[in-house]
User: Fold this.
Amino acid sequence: MEKKKKMSLATKIFIALVLGIIVGMLLISHASIATTYIKPFGTIFLNLIKWVVTPLVFFSIMSGVISMRDIRKVGSIGIKTIVYYLCTTAFAITIGLFLANVFKGFFPVLQTTDLVYEASEPVNFMDTLVGIFPSNFFKPFVEANMLQIIVASLIIGFALLLVEQQREIEFTMVDTLNDVFMKSMEMIVALSPIGVFCLICPVVAENGPAVLGSLAKVLLVAYIAYILHAVIVYSLSVKIGAGLSPIAFFKGMMPAIMFAFSSASSVGTLPINLECVENLGADKDIASFVLPLGATINMDGTAIYQGVCAVFIASCFGISLTFPQMLTIVLTATLASIGTAGVPGAGMVMLAMVLASVGLPVEGIALVAGVDRIFDMGRTTVNITGDASCTIIVSAIERRKQAK
Ligand code: ASP
Assistant:
């Protein structure tokens, strides 16, 4: 009998992506069919991801902390991780702003009268800071507040390491729960070819002609910046930091990249990303701490998007951004990207904070809202690739330290 070779998930996702685009194009003149009957299945898939994300991040960070067995080690890895994340994000937004300024002349100047966009709430730095710390044990889970979940899992993880009589049974319990939620996520992720098809098809059906029209140039600039950032920053950093060839890195990351591109969720990509970085030689303990942290706080693609959109929106309103305003954008976009949850569409909500910081009209978001999904697919891909590069570098540094 002929032996049947099992198709990999990545191949299935790729086929679903292509099919979704083709069917979406066929449905351009009947977009309502795609949005009424196909999109809901995509929504179910995303809902399942959002459901599992909170316990997954909670237990995986905690399990990462306790597997290191030593608070100092957690601290030293945590600091390296955060420094890398902040530097690459600041660099990302600089690339975004630079390219957007270079290509500003090509941007369309869209009508800005009658724009309506309701920003959720005014956000400022101090409120964001206070908001990181939970005041109620359950609320972070109920509201899926990822930063608060990280704080809670760190505190409990440290406490588990510090209690007098450290018992293996507690450690095993956390690891088991982590495995259980990872398995749940894997089960959900196994549905991703269907999810991806149902998500991409309505996007193409709805946006096809509109995108080709007015916003194509802005999208193009954002994508050039995404690619430049990934190719320059991540190639250099994995090469210098871990001695890994950039080609091997991007090749090994392909399944996660394709999944992120189609799902537009960093946190949803976590299980696949974990597998990819481990195959690329990263340490499992380090990955289970650095990756979930990155999926929540490290968003280079989101920062690039915010830079490009800020310049575009300003130019539509006939405003030219000054140098100090750009510096403010670098700072707020870095902070905003930390506060963004790794789920689809979150970056657009945080764009309000960036625009408000330099006095740009928040209604401008309405100009780019229609095609947010297309920006989002690219920015999520950059986001998760950044998390993976950090994991690989930190693993290599720790390995060198141990060898000494
Ligand atoms: N969708 C992005 C992510 O999950 C966040 C964003 O909207 O920028 O990484």
